[in-house]
Amino acid sequence: MEPMIDENHPKASDLDSAGTPGALVLLQHKPVYTLGTASDENYIKLDFDKIEERGIDLVQIERGGEVTFHGPGQLVAYPILNLKRDYKPDIHWYMRALEEVVILSLKKVGIDNAYREDDLTGVWINGKKVAAFGVKVKRWISMHGLAVNVLEQSTEENTFDNIVPCGIEGREVGYINEFLSEGSQIDIPTFSLKLIEAFEEIFRFDTFPVDVTARDFDLLD
Q1: What is the DSSP letter of 209?
Q2: Gap between the Cα atoms of 101 and 99, Å rounded
Q3: N or C: which end of the chain has fewer CB within 10 A?
Q4: 84: alpha, beta or left, given left = phi > 0 and alpha = psi -120 to 50?
Q5: Residue 1 CB partners (closer than 8 Å, separation 6+)
Q6: Which CATH superfamily, name and number, covers 4-205?
């Protein structure tokens, strides 16, 4: 089994024209390991054939960062924004803003102790990484984005255990409900609304919902 190449991505020209709005796409993926453009395959602990036997895809995509896992129980967000026109043509600023979106979302569900770590991209709670980030910017149009582990199933065996997530050795991966009491557990739709609220606040971005299914996106086939 060789990594598949994902050539499906938004065209930068789509947001080049004045007045074309950005978008925030929220979804859950089928089980998949994704590799960034310069990912080190040594961070994958299993042979590719064994990954395939477990029903997990392996896809190389146009983002930064090392290997990570996406699957059910994890909320993935793809902001498609014109950074130069509407914000700052600054990738460092953009990454910190995305982290702030997740931190604010967590506050909205009652978790006040989420934080960044120096020299590492991500959001952490009690030493465990709950959100990963990987982006590509082309002509200052943003692609790819972030993933937040919400439910326990997002971190169960045969997911992150088979890789070194984001190439960070010796660190655990966590999920939101791990840090909430039994009576305050949340689901993906609930956290999605909180993430949208936080995104609107950080990026001054008014959203309106559009219901889509996997068949509307080639990249989800």
Answers
A1: -
A2: 5
A3: C
A4: alpha
A5: 48, 49, 51, 52, 58
A6: Bira Bifunctional Protein; Domain 2 (3.30.930.10)
Domain locations in the chain as residue ranges: 4-205
pLDDT bin (cut points 50, 70, 90) of residue 49 is confident
Q: Which of 57, 10, 8, 12 is nearest to 35 (CA)?
A: 57
Is 190 marked active-site? no
Cα–Cα distance for residue pair 148/191, rounded to 1 Å: 10
pLDDT in tens, 177-193: 999 998 899 999 999 99
Whole-structure pTM value: 0.84
The answer to whether 77 touches 132, Cβ cutoff 8 Å, is no
Residue found by looking up tokens 């199933």 in the block: 153
What is the token pair recorded at 202?
Answer: 């950080």
| Alpha carbon 39 to its chain's center | 16
Structure tokens at 174: 């966590």
Q: How many CB atoms lie within 10 A of CB 110?
A: 12
Per the structure block, which two tokens stand in for 170?
């010796």
Q: Which of 15, 27, 106, 166 is catalytic?
A: 166
